[in-house]
TrEMBL record:
Family: Belongs to the plant dirigent protein family.
Protein name (record): Dirigent protein
Originating organism: Phtheirospermum japonicum
GO cellular component terms given for this protein: apoplast
Organism superkingdom: Eukaryota
Lineage per the UniProt record: Eukaryota, Viridiplantae, Streptophyta, Embryophyta, Tracheophyta
Amino acid sequence: MEDVSAESASPKPMDKWYQNLDHAKEIRTKLHFYIQDVLSGDNPMVLKVAESQITITSPTAFGQISMLDDLLTAGPEPGSEVVGRAQGTISFAMAIQMGLNIVFTEGKYKGSTISILGRNPLVEKYRELAIVGGTGFFRMARGIVVSNTHSFDTSTNYGV
C-alpha cells in the first residue's frame, strides 16, 4: 500500500492511493488520550462566540456556540506529553452538539486528523460520538469515540 502520510503535493498521490486501497481490509486502531479542557482563567481554550436571546436564562445555555482549541495529551495530568489538539465547535441545547477535529501534532500520527460529530450529553458517565472521517493515517476513518469525564475542578473550570 502507498504511503498514507498527511502531506500531499497534489491530488495524484491520493488518486493512486485510493485505487490501490484494499476495500475488503480494514485496520482497527484503538487510541486513548486526554483532552485538557480549560474553560476560564488567563488562557482559556474554550471561548463563547455566540449566544441567543435566551441563553443567559436557560439552564442548558441553549443557543450558545463556543469554539475550542484544547490540548490533547497522553496522560490526564496538565503537564502530560502533548500529542495534538482538539479543535472545533460546541453548540448548546439539552445536550451539547460537537463538531471536533483531533489534530495529531506529534508521534507516528503527526499531521493526521480524526473528525468527530455528535451529541455529547455531559450528564451521562459514558458518551458515544461518531467518527465521520479523517486525514493522513486516518483517511476514510469511521467508528466511535467513547468519552467520559476524568476530572473537573469547579474552582478553576478545568476539565479532563
